[in-house]
Design brief:
Elements lengths: L11 E5 L11 E6 L4 H14 L3 E4 L5 E2 L5 E7 L8 E4 L2 E5 L4 H10 L2 E2 L11 H7 L2 E2 L2 E2 L4 E7 L5 E5 H4 L12 E8 L1 E2 L2 H18 L19 H7 L6 E2 L2 E3 L7 E3 L5 H19 L8 E2 L1
Parallel strand pairs: 2-5, 3-5, 4-18
Antiparallel strand pairs: 1-2, 6-7, 7-13, 8-14, 9-10, 11-12, 11-13, 15-16, 16-17
The structure holds flavin-adenine dinucleotide (FAD).
Length: about 290
């Protein structure tokens, strides 16, 4: 019996990943799994680990660039109902890893629960956002996470509290573990006010970022005490191009993709930007996007 058999949701082979990401570019996954529940996911993670097969979770692919030759392992999507649950209990919210971040932020802020308004304009799932502590000038998701349930490569589930999750600037201690769910602590607030705040942040984001274009958000992290976008802009790189990839005119830290773009165009352009910023300012830029 092959190690991939026996799952309720059959594992697909040779699946194009491009359309599953915001960039809509990149190659295929050798396998794609959409587990029906946590025990199926746990079994898959254990089997992949035993077989030495690489495994990655894909949320909305809003922070991922899949290379043109694809991913030679199992890609897992947590888009089945078991991972899409949201339970609101007063000011506490337990939310599944596959829940859409922006939709949840909008719903809760429109219901007068405050704390996730800062996620307006940030595409993704709860799992992807918690893993990298998504956020920006208006706040980060880690600010409202109390604890997370995580699954490790041996199939062990643990609950980690905020201290152990060690949220920092676009980072946490989660590493290669799978986020199953997160417990959020929000504040009951004036409904009109939280709603206004969400819409205000959304408007600020759409004015300053190319939200409707194909990208994976900011390509580079901000270096300590500086803005990666400002350095790229000052280096005169807005509008620079490699094949179908172009540095956004709206926000210099975004590389947008034309329909003709290849993942290699984006990667080459990112390399060119890093080289120019190093040469002009002596600053080393670190990638924020995850390249598979
Ligand atoms: C237009 C645009 C604007 C953006 N603006 C911002 C912004 O303002 N601030 C910001 O922080 N980000 C921003 N981003 C980036 C992106 O929205 C965030 O990184 C978001 O958290 C990605 O979530 P995702 O579910 O799509 O993760 P994916 O892109 O699918 O995955 C990202 C990483 O997280 C891992 N991952 C995903 N789900 C899980 C899980 N359940 N358990 C463990 N690991 C997991 C993946 O394996 C991968 O390593 C922007 C992106 C775009 C396209």
């Amino acid at each position: 019996m092959d190690w991939l058999s026996g799952f309720a949701n059959p594992i697909e082979r040779d699946v194009p990943l491009g359309d599953l990401t915001w960039y809509r570019i990149g190659g295929r996954a050798r396998y794609l799994s959409r587990p029906d529940n946590e025990s199926e996911l746990e079994r898959l993670v254990r089997r992949a680990s035993e077989q030495g097969v690489d495994l990655k979770i894909l949320g909305r692919g809003a922070n991922v660039l899949v290379r043109d030759n694809g991913f030679n392992g199992v890609v897992v999507r947590l888009d089945t109902p078991a991972f899409q649950r949201t339970e609101v209990n007063g000011e506490r919210v337990r939310v599944g890893a596959g829940v859409d971040l922006m939709r949840l932020a909008k719903r809760l802020s429109h219901d007068g629960l405050s704390g996730l308004e800062c996620m307006a304009g940030i595409p993704g799932t709860i799992g992807g956002a918690v893993r990298m502590n998504a956020g920006g000038q208006f706040g980060c998701i880690g600010d409202v996470v109390e604890r997370c349930r995580l699954l490790d490569a041996n199939g062990v589930i643990e609950t980690w509290s905020k201290d152990r999750l060690a949220f920092g600037y676009r980072i946490s201690a989660i590493g290669d573990r799978v986020v199953l769910s997160a417990d959020l602590r929000l504040r009951r607030s004036d409904r009109a006010e939280t709603r206004r705040r969400f819409e205000e942040i959304f408007a600020a984001k759409t004015a300053s970022q190319p939200i409707s274009e194909r990208s994976a958000g900011c390509v580079f992290k901000n270096p300590p005490g500086a803005s990666a976008g400002a350095l790229i802009d000052a280096a005169g790189l807005k509008g620079s191009r490699c094949g179908g990839a172009v540095v956004s005119q709206r926000h210099a830290n975004f590389i947008c993709a034309d329909p003709s773009a290849k993942a290699s165009d984006v990667e080459r352009l990112a390399g060119m930007i890093a080289k120019r910023v190093r040469a002009e300012y002596g600053t080393e830029l670190e990638l924020e996007i995850d390249i598979w």
